[in-house]
Amino acid sequence: MEYRILGPLELRSAGRSVALGGERQQKLLALLVLGTGTVVTFDRLIDELWDDPPQTARRQVCNAAAAVRRVVTQGGGRLTTSTHGYRLDLPDGRLDADLFRSQVRDAEAVAREGKPAQAVALLQSALDLWRGPVLTGLTSASIDAEARGLDEQRLQAVERLAELRLDLGEVTSLLGQLAGQVAEHPLRESLRLTLMRALDRAGRRGDALTVFEEGRRALAEELGTDPGPELRRLHAELLRAQPAPVVTRRSPLPFDIPDFTGRESEVDSLILAIGAQAPAIVTIEGMGGIGKTALAVHVAHRLEDRFPDGRCYVDLRGFTAGTAPMTAGAALELLLRQIGVQPDQIPVDPDERRDLWLTEVSHRRVLVVLDNAADANQVRPLLPGAPGAVVLVVSRCHLMAIEGAIPVSLDVLPTDDAVALFRRIAGPSRADAEPEAVADVISLCGRLPLAIRIAASRFRRRPWSVAHLADQLRDRQRRARAFTANDLSVAGVLALSYHHLPADRQELFRLLALVPGADFDAHAGAALAGMPVHDAQDVLEELVECNLLMQRRSDRYCLHDLVRDCARDLADAACTPSGLDTARRRLFDYYLHLADVRGRRCMPGRRGFAPDLTWEPELPVSESEEDDIRQLRAEYKNMVAVADYASAHGWHVHAWQLPCLLLPYLARVGLRSGVLELSRNALAAARALGDRRGESMALTTIAFALREEGRHGEVLEFLDRAIAISRDLGDLPAAVGGLRDLGSSQVQAGMLGDAATSFAEAVALARSIGDQRAEVNSTIDLGLVDCNLGRYREADARFRDALAMHQLDGYVGGEVVVLINIGWLAQLRGRDAEAVVALERAVRLSREIGMSRGEGISLAWLGVTYRRQGRIADAVAVGREALESARRMDLREPEGDALNGLAETCLAAGRLREAEAMFREAEELGTAGALPMVRARAHEGLAHVAARRGDDWARTHWERAVELYPEGAVDAENPRAHLADAEARCMRCVCGPVEPPALKMLREVVSVG
Predict the structure, then answer these.
(1) pLDDT digits (tens, 9 = 90+) for 695-726
(2) Would you tell me the crossing angle of helices 625-648 and 675-689 to the nearest 10 degrees?
(3) Average per-residue pLDDT in the chain?
């Protein structure tokens, strides 16, 4: 709670006025506030509240005090009752009168230290606390006496401020204020004396003599006295036509805040840049509240000694509420005065002022700080261009049009600096007691210096814990109040940039608050606003230039958290809920459409569905499968955020369709984190709509998430339910897709026989409905099971049939898939030459159609074949290509295959350490991705490394490989051969055309059937 008596009595809590009741209750509170820390007796209260007290006066005082107690207790104060009266105790810093006196004392202290600019700032801050006469509207003997005392202190502060400003060379702006104050207090000689000095300094000696004469008459008429000795002495000097005493000119720079923290690298780079160039122009740019002015002033003070001929500071008011930006002519007048040009020598014409400014600084070493610049046009006429001049320009906008300027863009504080700033302001002991809560506060402040300053200052004046402050900042409404101090607020500072924008820019900025994700691109912005993408791009770039948007990566934008709050408040104020929902739906439809279109090439032949779009947005260009994956990768987290929002706010269609449309991408790259919760929300949304098709799709998505966690029993249960729903709906293509998913899950679970049954059923069902593409894909699935079971003839026949069908209908992507499988089968049968032909063709076709996944997998198995043929250099080259491709595409299982294959080649080349490292990486990847085949092959490799070293661990790794391979898998015969014969060779370690006897025996065993 803030207690304000410098004006009408007011209590403020969280930025809002608190109701105080009637006049008697207000007067009672005022009397208690004036007597803070002491007992105010019942008798005194009664005398002050009534001219003629009633018999019930004491009871009425008690009733009023009870109401006051409820108010002050809520705000952290304490009202206690004693035998004689009441005592009000307030925490330090709650009463504006106390703060006023404290700042006045601090101003005098820094003035004595020779820092007049700091003293001016403190005095101005103290006077800004006044909102009118003390306790306006409330009168009593005590109140009137206190008001007179405080009014006198205010006038003393006014006089002292005027003296200091005059010493600093401020004349023109001071004259009007002094004239008004002298008119209000005509008998106050000290004010009149300062006005006369200011007029003389401005070259208006005659006006100064007139002011003296007016004062002499007023004193004679009102008091019957003559002016005092100081006024008479100045009057005599003016009459003798002698100038007023010369006052040493001091720096007009604002004071360097004592708790300036961090920014070491920026300070160092600024000082280095200033020292390296002459003249130097540096632009300091950044969003509101980022600390631009503080940095510029701090650097200016650090460099003060280098510029003996002058230090200048002008606030150009480019982003000041209720004020137009300063004209170049007005700024030039201030600059000329600050370097000592007499007012009567300053031309009226702006161009002549510009010429005089250039002439005056041409031979000087001057430092100029141009703060709060609106744009380059405002700044350019003020640049001195002299060899010894340095200019620091501070702006919220990018000032790219200032030729030769060195730009310094400020970001939010690094975490350590942000914590250090909070500690310095809040107090180290209290902050250090709750380091985790401090970290929360810093995060909630978005590491924005202004937000940290206000939050820490508020905390310092409150008996809070840091955790309590963090709780306040977590709630958006409370956060807005917590980031407000007196008339300064973070939201207000940020909104200044917004109010300078054209209307169409303002509209898109407001709508950006609706983006649930962390970042967005121009297509998302266009969807929000319903405008063409190129127009959205222009607006977003302009918002970046105004530092309302940040750009962490090329073509992607993000909002600072507190800027997002500002945009949301502006949107709520300017837009109807239905209008916001329309924009939000366009954005959500954009993500639905992107997931649908870009997911189609992730898994060719996979069943899908058309999303329910109310608006079909423009998508970014994609020229290849790799582009598809890159776009989905960039937007995946944003799509999850959209799905989460949709689930939480009843947007059921988007809540179920978006996760299901993402399934091909999820399966393709092996993403697992958060997918189960996402898919369960999708199921709930589909059921809320009564959409059984959606329920089936969501069950399939849940099954994928469970399969990635290795929970095979639950996977089979969910897929059975999904297939049953598809059959009930008569959606047989969906049932075919479900059977293929079921078979793949059974393979991963080691249930190869059951998988063969599921795939065979999928083949038959696809054939019955005339879905040739699904029939071919299911046939390939069945052939893969045959390979794993060692049924090579059956597998070969299935693959050859599928190849012929794909070649017949011109489906090159399907042809690539079959060729990879033919190549793998040829390896299993020891026909390496055939494998090379198939795999090299698969690589070539993949590259022709931009099928990156096919290219990577083909390369991985081609490397294995080259190694088996003894072509080690070729095997290494294509193995590395395969690994790079898989990683570029985020393909987890192909990455594991590529790692194992390249490691086997390194093993064959005798590079054991390199091979071991890659096998271990493959094992870790297989564990993280629930890929038992990858893990088993990695353990085979580790066994081979150990065997080459004569290590007993070889047997353990081979045994582990056997355990991991599915039951009946032909690959399990490789480790079994080594377990049976220490000298055996298998297809993992063979290198060259000579076929080892053990390998021939193995083929005879596994080729049965």
Answers:
(1) 999 999 999 888 777 788 888 999 999 999 99
(2) 60
(3) 86
What pLDDT does 200 receive?
A: 83
Ranges of H-type helices in 789-909: 792-809, 812-828, 832-849, 852-868, 872-888, 892-908
Tokens 């005879």 appear where? Answer: 1004
Rounded distance between C-alpha atoms, residue 463 and residue 540, angstroms: 43
624: closest CA among 636, 632, 616?
A: 632
489: β partners = 484
The DSSP letter of residue 348 is S
Place of tokens 């961090």: 262
Beginning with the edge strand found earlier in the chain, give each strand of the sheet holding 16-17 in spatial order.
2-4, 10-13, 16-17
- On the question of pLDDT at 244 being above 50, the answer is no
Structural contact between residues 343 and 171, judged by C-beta atoms closer than 8 angstroms: yes
Q: Whose CA is closest to 378, among 323, 330, 310, 313?
A: 330
Give the sign of the dihedral formed by CA 406, CA 409, CA 415, CA 420. positive
- The residues, any chain, with a CB within 8 Å of residue 782's CB and separated by 6 or more, are 743, 756, 759, 760, 763, 798
Q: How far apart are CA 986 and CA 995, in angstroms?
A: 10
The residue that leads in pLDDT, 136 or 519, is 519
d(CA 160, CA 178): 12
Please report how many Cα atoms fall inside a 13 Å half-sphere around the Cα of residue 922, on the Cβ side: 31
> What are 40's strand-pairing partners?
86
Nearest to 625 by CA among 308, 837, 891, 979: 891
- Residue 17 backbone dihedrals phi, psi, to 5 degrees: -70, 145
Burial class (CB in 10 A: 0-12, 13-18, 19+), 841: middle
Residue 277 confidence class, pLDDT cut points 50, 70, 90: low
Instruction: Tell whether the model's pLDDT for residue 176 goes beyond 80.
Output: no
Q: What is the DSSP letter of 986?
A: -
Place of tokens 């058309």: 610
Query: Is the preceding peptide bond at 133 cis, omega within 30 degrees of 0?
Result: no
Please give the Cα distance from 757 to 762 (Å, whole number).
9
pLDDT-based confidence at residue 1000 (cuts at 50, 70, 90): very low
Residues in the chain: 1009
Q: In angstroms, what CA-CA distances link 627 with 567, 599, 621, 634, 889? A: 32, 11, 8, 11, 10
Cα–Cα distances in angstroms (integers) from residue 90 to residues 78, 87, 486, in the given order = 7, 10, 18
pLDDT tens string 641-684: 999 999 999 999 999 999 999 888 887 676 667 888 999 999 99
Q: Please state, as a whole number, how many other Cβ atoms lie within 10 Å of the Cβ of residue 448.
A: 28
* pLDDT at position 1003 over 50: no
Report the alpha-carbon distance of residue 923 to residue 405 in Å, rounded.
Answer: 54
Alpha carbon of 948 to those of 705, 879, 903, 953: distances in Å?
A: 39, 22, 14, 11
Specify the amino acid at residue 723.
Answer: I
Beta strands 16-17; 311-315: pairing state: unpaired
Distance separating alpha carbons of residues 329 and 345, to the nearest angstrom: 14
Q: Helix/strand/coil (H, E, C) string of 910-928?
A: CCHHHHHHHHHHHHHHHHH
pTM across the whole model: 0.64
CA gap 705, 659 in Å, rounded: 11
Residue 507: which pLDDT band, with cuts at 50, 70 and 90? Answer: very high
Say which range, 248-262, 284-298, 509-523, 659-673, has the weakest mean pLDDT: 248-262
Token pair in block for residue 189: 């000689």
- Number of Cβ atoms within 10 Å of the Cβ of 371: 20
For residue 230, give the H/E element and its range. Answer: helix 229-239
Contact 213/186 with Cβ under 8 angstroms? no
Both structure tokens of 273: 């840049």
Distances (CA, A) of 613 to 590, 594, 639, 950: 9, 11, 15, 64
Distance CA 969, CA 967 (A): 6
Contact 49, 140 (CB under 8 A): yes
